[in-house]
Amino acid sequence: MPQTSARPLAIFGGTFDPVHLGHLSVAWEAAELLDAEVRLLPVSVPPHRAPPIATAAQRVAILRAALQGQSRLTLDTRELDRPGPSYTIDTLHELRAEQGERPLVLLLGADAFAGLASWHRWRELFAATHIGVLSRPGVATALPDALEREVAGRRIADAAELRAWPAGKVIELTVTPLEISATRIRELLAAGRDPRYLLPAGLFDDPALLAPYRNPAA
Ligand SMILES: Nc1ncnc2c1ncn2[C@@H]1O[C@H](COP(=O)(O)OP(=O)(O)OP(=O)(O)O)[C@@H](O)[C@H]1O
Ligand SMILES: O=C(O)c1ccc[n+]([C@@H]2O[C@H](COP(=O)([O-])O)[C@@H](O)[C@H]2O)c1
């Protein structure tokens, strides 16, 4: 592969049902550690889990409100425009066609990374992107054998090295541990609780934003 020196483009995909301060904080720190542009990509149809509670439009409205007031993290809604399951390999091929040899970095929480060998055409991911693994509280670092074998020769420790190649390296990103999950936030909202300090403050300004979780049957 040709060498490159462009500023990396990092993508952070998720169901974001809803986006929370755990997502935003780790994405922010990854942008700092990698000196990268970071885009949040909400999935349309998650390949490996039940459909989200909120619609795509509702999740995007929450994301837009959550991202207000800063410009380091941006929103990329391309997966919502594609029918069928949101396979990450398809997204990466689209981005590669747009970005040329610019380094791409797929950001994954440690839990999502540990499950990588079950993803659609997972071995092709390494030719399409670098991977940045975000530490997450309570997630063991041991990997299944097939994944460990694929990753073993790819690990790097210095983020600057990512710039030398468009794809193919794996870097652990040690970020501030925040034990926040969307599952917990949905439980709290469904129980009529107010998880104010687990979510960006702006989400509480408009009662419609979190309404899908307060009364999922509505
Ligand atoms: N607190 C966190 N710290 C580090 N990574 C996180 C954290 N929360 C989510 N992630 C990562 O964000 C990505 C998208 O996660 P997702 O939208 O499924 O959030 P979640 O909080 O894990 O949701 P759910 O509880 O519904 O499974 C995944 O790569 C996941 O590992
Ligand atoms: O491409 C796949 O097969 C695949 C399988 C599972 C998850 N993903 C992606 O991983 C990201 C995090 O997913 P999740 O389920 O933890 O929200 C999100 O962008 C998903 O599209 C992708």
From TrEMBL:
<dbReference type="InterPro" id="IPR014729">
    <property type="entry name" value="Rossmann-like_a/b/a_fold"/>
</dbReference>
<comment type="pathway">
    <text>Cofactor biosynthesis; NAD(+) biosynthesis; deamido-NAD(+) from nicotinate D-ribonucleotide: step 1/1.</text>
</comment>
<comment type="similarity">
    <text>Belongs to the NadD family.</text>
</comment>
<keyword id="KW-0662">Pyridine nucleotide biosynthesis</keyword>
<keyword id="KW-0547">Nucleotide-binding</keyword>
<dbReference type="GO" id="GO:0009435">
    <property type="term" value="P:NAD+ biosynthetic process"/>
</dbReference>
<dbReference type="Pfam" id="PF01467">
    <property type="entry name" value="CTP_transf_like"/>
</dbReference>
<keyword id="KW-0548">Nucleotidyltransferase</keyword>
<protein>
    <recommendedName>
        <fullName>Probable nicotinate-nucleotide adenylyltransferase</fullName>
        <ecNumber>2.7.7.18</ecNumber>
    </recommendedName>
</protein>
<dbReference type="InterPro" id="IPR005248">
    <property type="entry name" value="NadD/NMNAT"/>
</dbReference>
<feature type="domain" description="Cytidyltransferase-like">
    <location>
        <begin position="11"/>
        <end position="187"/>
    </location>
</feature>
<keyword id="KW-0067">ATP-binding</keyword>
<dbReference type="InterPro" id="IPR004821">
    <property type="entry name" value="Cyt_trans-like"/>
</dbReference>
<keyword id="KW-0520">NAD</keyword>
<dbReference type="GO" id="GO:0005524">
    <property type="term" value="F:ATP binding"/>
</dbReference>
<comment type="function">
    <text>Catalyzes the reversible adenylation of nicotinate mononucleotide (NaMN) to nicotinic acid adenine dinucleotide (NaAD).</text>
</comment>
<dbReference type="GO" id="GO:0004515">
    <property type="term" value="F:nicotinate-nucleotide adenylyltransferase activity"/>
</dbReference>
<keyword id="KW-0808">Transferase</keyword>
